[in-house]
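TODO from last week: model Mannose-6-phosphate isomerase-like protein (Cupin superfamily).
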Amino acid sequence: MPLEAPRTAEVQVVRYGELQPCKTAFIDAHTPGSDRKENFTIIGGGVSESPDQHVHITTPHGFNIGAAGQPPRCRNSLHSHRTAEVFFVLSGRWRFFWGRWGDAGEVVLEEGDIINIPTGIFRGFENVGTDYGMIMAILGGDDAGGGVIWAPQVIEDAKDHGLVLGENGKLYDTKEGQALPEGVAPMRVLTEEELADYPEPSTRDVLPRHVARYLDLVALADRAPVTVIGERGVLPDRPGFEVALVTRGSATRERHDHDRPSVLMPVAGHWRVEWDGGSDILAPGDTMSVPAGLSHAAWPSMEGDAALYHVVGTGDLAGATWKG
């Protein structure tokens, strides 16, 4: 049985306006086309390769919460993870693409849409909107699988722009006079034999089981919260956490609690959260961590569209692979 995350006595909130970005989080930080992106680590250590990355909440949850902010036409390079990776669009329009060269398939997501990308697939994403956009990310496991696996061409391109990734998962900027420490070799590039094990699913394969549209989920959550990602979710999977959508129609003031820390992430409207000993108001882009065992409830505090994603760990990583 997996161990429960340690309990913390207080609710913790990270405001959207207080997020601290890192512009050198990954190996492609200097590569043209990817050099203007910002990475945010909200809960857990994430997978950043930079010592400059700020972590807002370090309490283990069984999963990590992060975000990527990018101006138009800025992209995140092709990579893979050892645990599941889920994104929902907070603002803007985003193109997600996948495959060894990024041409196996793609989908464009709008605000509130969600995609569950399992392990074993190279994926990237690009802001195809007209303004700065933000996507929120959920990664399985407390250590997020130990880092990022980059497509070989990403590592090779980065060398031309001064960034070298060590086998220790840390970045070194040769343009700043940095070099790999003694005894640390460069990150190994995957062989062609290893690359052959990475699937190339088509868009037709991915859309039905790995993408859910916000407006469809809102309709499903009209009377009760809808499980989006979970064993019996709209997108069935067991990536180590469950994601549900709560709307105005399904919100209740009846309090409840969980045996693990849970996270509230509004995507539309303002939400009032009350718990034993306190209350707060959340807006889109805010992230609230509710400790295990704390009785709480959340409901919209103003008129208009209102929805939030709710995340809680399950400790079960059995489904975090591509099944074809």
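Done. Confidence is low (pLDDT under 50) at residues 1-8.
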